[in-house]
Write a structure and sequence with these properties.
Elements lengths: L7 E6 L7 H14 L4 E6 L1 H8 L3 H17 L8 E4 L4 H11 L4 H5 L2 H9 L18 H4 L1 H10 L5 E4 L4 H18 L10 E4 L28 H8 L21 H9 L2 H13 L4 H28 L1 H30 L7
């Protein structure tokens, strides 16, 4: 078997539905761009999805295929990158247990990403603390940052493309790796220190002005959305409240539609839109129409590529099966190294 000398990337997605534009700018762009330069592993984190959706296992099962197809649709090459499923790699769970032995509860308690998600799912109140939500918090949810550290380190990843909101998890992973190497490495680096790669657009706000994208709120544009679905979501976008009539002078800097133009449109078109909005030459309806066309043009090739995988789900399943086998072999190597360092490699079984 050929051994890759490239450094490794580990990134992934929670399968709780189809991937959207926030995922695209937050991580998908970087994973596609870097897949030829790094030994790339894309983990579908179904166990972590169950920490918030344990009552909807059927959603997770369906979404595993959706997430895989979305990755393939945007340009992830299964001949180059490795797609794998978290729950089918038991070594990740094993590493999670080991990391929990020397990670203090206070580290988990003060993780801002975990707190934000607990607030989103109603586990704590607005001014609450994770320690006050024990009636609602599950053991799995409170400790899932340890699982995420195991996700990153089971393939001994060097780089992790993430959105801005995931940076605290990377910082915790780095703390865990540092402590493990110091305690058990005896001067050697057993697990490499991972680095975060934050996207140029670290956090994409929803078009309706909300900070959180949610399918239930109708403010999400999925990578697989049709023209009509894109148009419907864009038309709900919050614009400049002071621009009531088309010829009113606008303030694009406070307009959500213009924020999306700056991210997805060309610099030349953005400059024209800004000028015409400020002068009153461009109305909000026409501006939304232009954004719809831009997003449709960008997503159309992804939709076409996805259709091929939708027609042949057995191909997607085979990609996941082979990728999971490959990832697990590396995970077994990592666990063997960790057990040796922990002095719990007693005998072969």
């Amino acid at each position: 078997m050929k051994v890759s000398r490239k450094k490794r990337i580990l990134t992934g997605d929670r399968p709780t539905g189809k991937l959207h534009l926030g995922h695209y700018v937050g991580s998908l762009i970087n994973r596609v761009k870097l897949q030829h330069d790094y030994d790339t592993f894309l983990l579908i984190a179904d166990v972590q999805a169950l920490t918030t959706h344990w009552e909807q296992p059927e959603l997770i099962r369906e979404s595993v295929m959706d997430v895989a197809m979305d990755n393939l649709a945007v340009g992830v090459d299964p001949e180059v990158a490795t797609l794998c499923v978290q729950s089918m790699i038991p070594e990740i769970a094993e590493l999670t247990v080991f990391y929990g032995l020397f990670t203090h509860m206070n580290k988990l308690r003060h993780n801002p990403t975990t707190k934000a998600e607990a607030l989103q799912y109603g586990m704590i109140h607005e001014n609450g603390d994770l320690m006050t939500g024990f009636d609602q918090l599950t053991y799995g949810f409170f400790g899932y940052p340890l699982s995420q550290a195991a996700d990153i380190t089971f393939v001994r990843a060097h780089l992790v493309p993430v959105g801005e909101d995931q940076k605290p998890h990377i910082e915790l992973t780095r703390d865990i790796v540092k402590k493990f190497n110091e305690l058990y490495g005896r001067g050697k680096e057993i697990i490499p220190m991972p680095e975060a790669l934050v996207s140029d657009v670290p956090r994409l706000t929803a078009l309706d002005g909300g900070t959180k994208m949610s399918k239930s709120l109708g403010n999400v544009i999925n990578i697989s959305d049709s023209y009509d679905e894109i148009r419907s979501t864009v038309w709900k976008a919050v614009t400049d409240p002071q621009k009531i009539r088309k010829n009113d002078a606008g303030h694009p800097d406070i307009c959500n539609v213009f924020k999306y133009h700056k991210i997805f449109n060309t610099e030349e078109d953005v400059a024209t839109i800004e000028q015409d909005c400020r002068s009153g030459a461009l109305g909000c309806v026409e501006c939304k129409g232009r954004l719809t066309d831009v997003l449709h043009g960008m997503l159309a090739p992804f939709r076409e590529r996805r259709k091929g995988y939708e027609a042949h789900p057995e191909r997607v399943e085979e990609i996941l099966r082979e990728g999971t086998k490959k990832a697990r072999r590396i995970g077994q190597e990592t666990v063997a190294m960790v057990k040796e360092a922990l002095k719990v490699d007693y005998f072969a079984v």
